Amino acid sequence: MPHFQRISLVHYHELGLKGHNRSTFERHLMRNLSSLLEDAPVEKVTRISGRVLVMYQASADASEIAEAADLIARVPGVARVSCGFVCDRELDQMYAAADAALSEAGAFDTWKVVARRNHTDFEIDSMEMNQLVGAYLCERYPDKKVKMKHPDVEVHVEVVQGHSYIYAQSIPGVGGLPVGTAGKVVCLMSSGIDSPVAAWRMARRGATCIGVHFSGRPQTASTSEYLVDDIAHVLERFGGIARVYVVPFGDYQRDIAGMVPPALRIIIYRRLMMRIAERIARREGAKALVTGESLGQVASQTLDNLAATNAAVEMQIFRPLIGSDKLEIIADAQKLGTFEISSNPAPDCCTLFMPRSPETHAKIADVEAAEEALPWQEWIEEIMENLELHEYRCPSSYRVRDAARAAEQAQSSSRVADADAAVSQGTVLFG
Ligand code: ATP
Ligand code: MG
């Protein structure tokens, strides 16, 4: 059997992508993919006919390609990833590539060919291609059945410009929008189960996430910081997180615990966290705060207490999990790959000085009165001076000062450059 170059075609939903939106979407998606696939055996990331085309190196083996496809499927903006081959638009080659694709499709009983050409300069139309490739495969797989509706496997044959792209394997992607198309948000990240899922939901809508973690240090060990770092590394794989600020918060909590009525402690910790997160957001140019709160899950997540927390800041606060059940959140955390990390016990700074019966219906006036005993404005200045910053690889947050480095990388690998050149050419052939 001839040896064809292996490829993945990355499909995205084009719904609502018109004019300028579409080119922004494509530019971000290609840049994110090029960068996230840096360690994969990829020769080139480019674009054909409203898809992203990933071409693998000849040396890449099947398991490396399966791993790359699995990564691509988890990158926000990707609706589907198909894996197969590219060959010339010669029938003999197309037959052999279709045969190779079908032979790798796993167990199946029924199949069909789905052919398509993007230009009439290829003399065989899609109906004829269906028949020709279909007839060839019928001979090769005499005991398998052709089925038009819902077959086990579809062998796709796409003739685009001078090449044919042929695949029979396809996996669904996470959908959403490419990270970087929606601006920045600051995510309050504990090492718990919920907040990583909340951040992920925002990343999947195109937001670049900046984490803020309040550690119980020096009153507790730094366990939660290591867990948050592990969580950030999971989000980093899909380009979802750019940096995490760690705030050593234990001493402030101890002071709050000594100075305000026990029932209001948690709400007052929360308000201080929000104010600090808002300051960080302003510094970062982020336009919203994000938490993993879910209505009624714990005492601090009643409507009254959420309102008391909101009242501490002006910036909008998003709570993507507000209507989710814990079991749904756990299922999402498992899919994301953060559940096991979050299941490790860590002395959270909120549990450190936990009152026995926290207020569930805090009145804003009472909270504000209690806060008068605290020099919280001074604390915020002090905390802002002592932030600890952890950086993660996030293609959407390359800044101007990183542009030179990015250009250098692009030149050395030529992949980002190819990707950008392909986008700026703006060739959209289908759709
Ligand atoms: P999670 O599993 O995300 O910790 P939770 O159900 O344990 O959520 P809380 O501990 O009440 O609920 O926290 C609610 C939200 O407040 C978290 O989802 C997170 O956004 C924020 N938060 C809580 N503790 C911290 C912390 N130590 N650092 C940063 N953010 C925090
Ligand atoms: Mg928690």
UniProtKB/TrEMBL annotation:
GO biological process terms on file: thiamine biosynthetic process; thiamine diphosphate biosynthetic process; thiazole biosynthetic process; tRNA 4-thiouridine biosynthesis
E.C. numbers: 2.8.1.4
Protein location: Cytoplasm
InterPro entries: Rossmann-like_a/b/a_fold, ThiI_AANH, ThiI_fer, ThiI_N, THUMP_dom, THUMP_ThiI, tRNA_STrfase, tRNA_sulfurtransferase_ThiI
Any one GO CC term of the record: cytosol
Annotated metabolic or biological route of this protein: Cofactor biosynthesis; thiamine diphosphate biosynthesis
Superkingdom to which the source organism belongs: Bacteria
Keywords: ATP-binding, Cytoplasm, Nucleotide-binding, RNA-binding, Thiamine biosynthesis, Transferase, tRNA-binding
Role noted for this protein: Catalyzes the ATP-dependent transfer of a sulfur to tRNA to produce 4-thiouridine in position 8 of tRNAs, which functions as a near-UV photosensor. Also catalyzes the transfer of sulfur to the sulfur carrier protein ThiS, forming ThiS-thiocarboxylate. This is a step in the synthesis of thiazole, in the thiamine biosynthesis pathway. The sulfur is donated as persulfide by IscS.
Family: Belongs to the ThiI family.
Protein name listed in UniProt: Probable tRNA sulfurtransferase
